[in-house]
Amino acid sequence: MPKTIKRILILFCLIAVLILPYFVFADNAVLNKLQDVGANNGPYAVADDTSLTSNIGIIISTVLGLIGVIFLILIIFAGYNWMTAAGEEEKVTKAKDTLTRAIIGLVITLGAYAISWFVFSKFLYY
After folding, report:
1. Quick one: how far is CA 7 from the chain centroid?
2. Where are the alpha helices (H) located in 25-88, listed in sequence order?
3. DSSP 42
4. What are the start-end ranges of the H helices in 25-51?
5. Whole-angstrom Cα distance, residue 59 to residue 65?
6. CA-based nearest residue to 54, from 124, 114, 112, 107
7. What angle do CA 106, 37, 121 make, to 5 degrees?
8. Which residue, among 57, 111, 101, has the nearest Cα to 78 in the 3D structure?
9. Which of 8, 18, 48, 103 has its C-alpha lying 20 to 30 A from 56's C-alpha?
10. What is the pLDDT of residues 38-51, one digit of tens each?
11. According to the model, what pLDDT value does residue 1 have?
12. Per-residue pLDDT tens over the stretch 82-103
């Protein structure tokens, strides 16, 4: 691809990333619901809430968030190893294995986070 086309494409992408958020309009009903949930409910909103389900929800969210950060670091590490392998097949294979396992772990962690959020949101609001 010629250099000028590449520069124009990069410039277009940057402009799109900067301008597109201005065209996103949220429905007022959604915003009101989010404000209501954030005002008195939710696992992080109320500091005085000492119920067991709230505390367990906060602990699970924190642990799963930290595990997600660990998987992100693993993905970056595997990508770095793959880029610096310099054609050595053993290093490339090891980096691919690390990347595959990190992605599988991240998917499992996101699934666990979604399930725990769903379950504890039902306990907190009913």
Report:
1. 30
2. 28-40, 52-83
3. S
4. 28-40
5. 10
6. 124
7. 50
8. 101
9. 103
10. 455 555 544 555 67
11. 61
12. 999 988 999 999 999 999 998 8
